[in-house]
Amino acid sequence: MAKNDTNDGNCGRYWQRPRFWFMFGIPIGGFAMFLVGIIFWGGFNTVVHMTNSLGFCTSCHEMQTVYEEYKTSIHYKNEVGVRAICPDCHVPKEWGPMMVRKIQATFNELPMHVMNVIDSPEKFKSMRLELARDVWKAMKATDSRECRNCHSIEAMDIEKQGHSAQKKHNLARMKERNETCIDCHKGIAHKLPEGFED
Q: How far apart are CA 48 and CA 87, in angstroms?
């Protein structure tokens, strides 16, 4: 066999990975991907946190009317100093449902903002009942999950409530009638829309 034959012992080495690739390359690549993942996740969580702030929620001019109403409500200022902000009532705390809500907002509310669907007080007023019904329907579907982040019937001192509230906060009655917080507490943070009939 000739010495310049491609099957000699030296030529094949050019196509083999050196051993240091396995010793250093894969762990370094894995560590680099781990760092990229941390940076991505940190950036993602920063954006989610930013979009769950009162400043973000009220930065659109469409929200100024409801923001002013909210500032006169017990959720904004009360004797015990506990404040609920927009995401406390409108965005789930659990990660999965929160992401679903963020996606819904991206495909429903963001286009409305971009297309100026409710860019004036008059337009907002004309759509307010429809918008409120959408929110109430969502709250009913989740058994007022966001209300229950702060309020728990089990933790209420029912004896200190008025007769009507005691009756309505009876868990057995609520279950029997398929009632949840939003059934009785519409208009607690915002004014009820014109044309609303319970």
A: 11
Residue 113 · residue 105 · CB < 8 Å = no
Q: Which two tokens stand for residue 59?
A: 């930065």
**Contact partners, residue 48, CB within 8 Å, separation at least 6:** 98, 102
How is residue 62 written in tokens?
Answer: 């469409």
- Among the listed residues 136, 120, 121, the one whose alpha carbon sits nearest the alpha carbon of residue 192: 136
Rounded Cα distance between 64 and 121, Å, is: 9
Tens digit of each residue's pLDDT (9 = 90 or more) over 47-77: 999 999 999 999 988 888 899 999 999 999 9
DSSP at 18: P
pLDDT at residue 61, as a whole number: 83
Nearest to 87 by CA among 119, 117, 128, 48: 48
User: CA 129: distance to chain centroid?
Assistant: 22
